[in-house]
Amino acid sequence: MYDDLVGKGLPMWLPNGFIVRRLLSDYIMDKEIALGYKHVLTPCLGNVELYKTSGHWAHYQKDMFPKMDVDNESYVLRPMNCPHHMVMYRSALHSYRELPLKIAEIAADFRFEASGALTGIERTRAFYQNDSHIFCMPTQIGDVFKEVTKLILDVYHDFGFKNYAFRLSLRDPNDTEKYFGNDELWEKSENQLREVLKELGVEYYEAIGEAAFYGPKLDVQVKSAIGHDVTLSTIQLDYQLPERFELTYIDEKGEKARPVVVHRAILGSLDRFIAFLIEETKGAFPTWLAPVQVNLLPVNNDYHLEYANELLAKFKEHGLRVALDDSNDKLGYRMRSSQMKKIPYTLVLGDHERDDRTVTYRRFGVQEQITVSIDEFLKLIDDEIKNKALLNTENK
Ligand SMILES: [Zn+2]
């Protein structure tokens, strides 16, 4: 929801939306932990000096909120969290043995967007990024890119995204003034990225002149079911921030060397990702993500409510997100209403179900109703959640 009293472009998340955010955060953090990422938390404000060091103050200021002056210092809301992570890396000595070091955060960022550019939860002034900075040796760039690209493919597979394109953004070799670093460095790193994509058999296209000034990048453009294009994921090589923050590691010979930074976002902004997911699924979220997974409909409150309440308690205890519709509306009406809410499972509970201790379920988008024992139903839904099964959207 939005309210002008809070401010334009500042979304507030209601309970159902927050459930989806929490599940997505847990989902991506679990994947990252399995790959050795370390999660951190940094404040959403920073001293202006931090952004002067990073170069954002000179190059990105028009996208930032104005500074706040306190105690002879100036602070700004951060537009991105790279500088905080650079400072965190710099706070300790690092050996080559620790690299690649992967710092990750679900970080609140703030950007000044003109009010005309604000769009739903897709383009806002406050959002949360599924961000990470990977500090590595130049020789590790290929492996780091490969791991991140595989993670992107793995995540897209889980969400059933099929309509996407990888874009390799390279520098314009005729306009070297614009870019940081020397020719050899660029050619080498661009070739490393091509090699990785070929090795993984990923189709991609090249975009000359689209690289960031600090390094080449790989963007993934995804098209939703309603045909809307969004850049969800990105991997960017950066030789510049390590220079600006004078980052080092101790190499095999015991000498100080400069690491390379890889910026990467998988889900990107969680807010924009959820906007995309709503378009892609048309609101029918897979069971593992649905804010309400099971809706219980007693046929008659006089005879079946007790059984429905027993199941409500049992399913909650089991960890399911379950609702009970004990309104006095007719069963057909309550069934339609459950389908309109796109709840994955609607359970009808009448005499037979109560006496046999069974449930009759109807899946969202499917006409058929199936009767099974309580335990069979729990096993079925548990498997579906565990496997993050996609909803069969054919019948929607
Ligand atoms: Zn970054």
Description:
This protein is of the alpha+beta class. It folds into two domains: 267 residues, 2-Layer Sandwich (BirA Bifunctional Protein, domain 2); 93 residues, 3-Layer(aba) Sandwich (Rossmann fold). The chain is built from twelve helices and 18 strands. The strands form four sheets. The protein has an eight-stranded mixed β-sheet with strand order 1-5-6-13-10-9-7-8. The protein is elongated. Bound molecules: zinc ion. Zinc ion binds next to loops.
What would a concise description of this structure say?
The chain is an alpha+beta fold. Helix content is 35%, strand content 26%.
What is the element string, with H for helices and E for strands? HEEHHEEHEEHEHEEEHEEEHEHEHEHEEH
Helix content: 25-40%
Main structural class: alpha+beta
Instruction: Return the CATH class of the largest domain.
Output: Alpha Beta
Q: Please count the beta strands (DSSP E, at least 2 residues each).
A: 18
CATH architecture of the largest domain: 2-Layer Sandwich
What hetero molecules are bound to the protein chains?
zinc ion
Report how far the terminal alpha carbons are from each other. 26 Å
Binned strand content: 25-35%
Query: In the residues, how many domains can be counted?
Result: 2
Mean pLDDT: 93
Q: Using the alpha-carbon principal axes, give the shape.
A: elongated
Runs with pLDDT <50, length 5+? none
Radius of gyration: 25 Å
Q: What's the arrangement of strands in the largest beta sheet?
A: 1-5-6-13-10-9-7-8
CATH superfamily of the largest domain: Bira Bifunctional Protein, Domain 2
Put simply, the count of helices is 12
* Major sheet attributes: 8 strands, mixed
Q: Indicate the CATH topology of the largest domain.
A: BirA Bifunctional Protein, domain 2
